[in-house]
Known about the structure:
Elements: H1 12-38, E1 47-51, H2 66-76, H3 78-83, E2 84-89, H4 93-104, E3 117-119, H5 125-133, E4 139-143, H6 153-160, E5 166-172, H7 173-179, H8 186-193, H9 195-204, H10 210-226, E6 232-239, E7 246-254, H11 257-272, E8 279-280, H12 291-294, H13 302-309, E9 314-316, H14 317-327, H15 335-347, E10 352-354, E11 362-363, E12 366-367, E13 374-376
Parallel strand pairs: 1-2, 1-4, 2-3, 4-5
Antiparallel strand pairs: 5-7, 6-7, 6-8, 9-13, 10-13, 11-12
Helix pairs in contact: 1-2, 1-11, 5-6, 8-9
Amino acid sequence: MTDKSFFEISKEQSRIKVAIVSKYFEAWAIVMMGVQDRAKGKDGDTIAYIDLFAGPGRYDDGTKSTPLLILEKAIASDKLRNRLVTIFNDKDAVYTTSLEEEIKNLPGVEALKHRPHVYNEEVGTEIVKVFERMKMIPTFFFLDPCGYKGLSLELINSVVKDWGCDCIFFFNYNRVNMALTNELVDDPMNALFGKERADRLRKRIEGISPSERELMIVEELCQAIKEFGKRYILPFRFRNEAAARTSHHLIFITKDVRGILIMKDIIAREGSAVSPGIVSFEYNPASIRQPFLFQWIQPQDIENRLLEHFAGRTLTFRQIRDQHTAYDPYTPYAEKDYREALLEMEAEEKITTDPPVERRRKRKGKITFGEDVKVTFPPKRKG
Length: 383
């Protein structure tokens, strides 16, 4: 795939990608602005969105890409309109010229307090140094290179090092898979995995099956990111249109459990809205040889896990959801899974609730389970 072909058509994967990023941004922005408001401006009152591989603003079929959707969300929100700083970059001058024109013609863009900035720079070590030196305001970074050039461990760490900074990057598995065994592109692969890890990976992937190779490559990338410090890393894979093989992996990085919950919920909804297998939590057949990915396919008996973890305690739904996610983040449980499990446990009288089911209202014919509903778990059985 060439840079020019990257935006030729808005395929199903691209539409899902745009939806995931824009929905996460909106939810993240609400959380960040709420924290700032409660802190009475202690950390400033601006937040930022930065896209270092922004593209032209639209696909060739006219579909809007992420920069325009982010700006539309800001224009539509009184708070975001006055608080969001946006920075877009692309190394292709044709793309940045197109994007500037698209932004200029966006209805209501003049109402933004902070004018969008568009830059025409190649992403490399100089940009990394800039981010490393800066104390960032809460910023959501989106990194979606056509291939792998510019993407590095140092870049990823530099953009998530500060409070409130989350990142989504798309990892072009097909391109990286081919590049790992191509000596002509050793340098960008060393930058992405770290030289020692990349050298080890090159030896390990020789002669193994394609599925095992994929697991190993993604496992090593996630482990490399974890080494920079406490990070929650959620990897999801995109299948091609025929769902026959992987094309990309979405790697989400946050330091806050709220980010995990938001992203899991978005992925669960987006994944169920498209053909099965396009977006997946699963890494089957990951094994103990890939310990990070292996966590995702352990037996997912949520009811027994909750009964064991919270035995003898009384907590609100919000506390259960947040505390269990922080304790066991690498499961595919989204908020709806916790809610459905607790409703089932309540119906089977495995737990007691306050207010009880008969005092809670129905919504669309179903009993609600609000964030402040208290749940009492039975004590652990002796023996």
